[in-house]
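Explain this record to help learners:
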Amino acid sequence: MAVKIRLSRHGKKNFAFFHIVVADSRAPRDGRFIEQIGTYNPNTDPATVVLKADRALAWLNVGAQPTDTARSILSHEGVLLRKHLQIGVAKGAISQEEADRRFNEWKAQRDAKLQSKKDSINAQNAEKAKAAFEAEAKVNQERAEAIAKRKAEEAAAKAAEEAAAKAAEEAEKAAEEEAAKATEESASEGTAEA
């Protein structure tokens, strides 16, 4: 029986995540498996991998063959480096302490790279959010200025209408007073003649 370390697809359409499984090569992709040794979620940035490294190493040591994608995940997680170092220890080329030291140095470098990538992504997201906020504030300020200008124009037009109405009212009042004076004069002339 050929044993493979491979990915088993789960999730939904356009949002897949994968289980990392050890399965018989003849079993269906998402079907029967021997053991689940981790998960892989490519939807996050950077991709999230949760892996039982000791179990993966144990399966590699007994001859399980990883698929190409599973091999890259195992390599990224350091399982293949750990296997390589263990072969060196078994041959007597290096000591166990030296193998552990090399693995820990590699892991520290990988974690530093991963953290710097996360920091740069967070900085880019913060910069984008700041730019979007500034753009929105500028648009809001332009809208407020346009509204204030429109209200000022409306107020000026209303004041002009009121002034015109007041002038017309005063003119009408003046005309009424002149008409009243004229009738008064003609009435006083009429009484004076009589």
